[in-house]
């Protein structure tokens, strides 16, 4: 990992932590924040938004990505996403998020994940997180 990537990842994690503070998670009390980095350097935040009918809940990763696309950013114009959850030592995207992210971000996009223990921070590509994904690319 190069120094520039480390600095970029730390900045993205800071944004994800700020997003986690905006969560709506009254049922699980499990805040998650995400920060999506666009190709041109913009950061789009997302947080988990729960519903009493859990199937209608939206994860932070998808909230950030759907927000970016609804703002007019084209699919596959994203470099990285950071995901942060303060109540577990390490977090990673759920299976549904992995599938959505790999299709809308691209297989080589970077995923930076951190929980309450920064020493456990992980950096993956989406194709590492979801080998053999359903794909349309």
TrEMBL record:
**Might you give the EC number(s) for this enzyme?**
3.5.4.5
What CDD domains would the database entry show? cytidine_deaminase (cd01283)
Every copy of the CMP/dCMP-type deaminase domain together lies at 7-137
Catalyzed chemical reaction(s): 2'-deoxycytidine + H2O + H(+) = 2'-deoxyuridine + NH4(+); cytidine + H2O + H(+) = uridine + NH4(+)
Against InterPro entries, the record matches this protein to: APOBEC/CMP_deaminase_Zn-bd, CMP_dCMP_dom, Cyt/Deoxycyt_deaminase, Cyt_deam_tetra, Cytidine_deaminase-like
What cofactor requirement does the entry state? Zn(2+)
User: Top EC class per UniProt?
Assistant: hydrolase
Q: Which positions carry the signal peptide feature in this UniProt record? A: none
Q: State the Pfam families in the record.
A: dCMP_cyt_deam_1
Q: Which UniProt keywords apply?
A: Hydrolase, Metal-binding, Zinc
| Domain of life, per lineage | Bacteria
Role according to the record: This enzyme scavenges exogenous and endogenous cytidine and 2'-deoxycytidine for UMP synthesis.
**Record-stated family:** Belongs to the cytidine and deoxycytidylate deaminase family.
Under what name is this protein listed? Cytidine deaminase
């Amino acid at each position: 990992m190069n120094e520039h990537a480390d600095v970029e990842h730390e900045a993205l994690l800071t944004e994800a932590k700020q997003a986690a503070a905006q969560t709506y998670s009254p049922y699980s009390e499990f805040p998650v924040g995400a920060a999506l980095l666009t190709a041109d350097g913009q950061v789009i935040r997302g947080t988990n938004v729960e519903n009493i009918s859990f199937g209608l809940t939206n994860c932070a990763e998808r909230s950030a990505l759907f927000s970016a696309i609804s703002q007019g950013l084209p699919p596959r114009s994203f470099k990285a996403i950071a995901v942060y959850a303060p109540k577990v030592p390490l977090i990673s995207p759920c299976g549904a998020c992995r599938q959505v992210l790999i299709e809308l971000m691209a297989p080589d996009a970077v995923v930076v994940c951190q929980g309450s223990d920064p020493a456990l921070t992980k950096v993956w590509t989406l194709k590492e997180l979801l080998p053999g994904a359903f794909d349309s690319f």
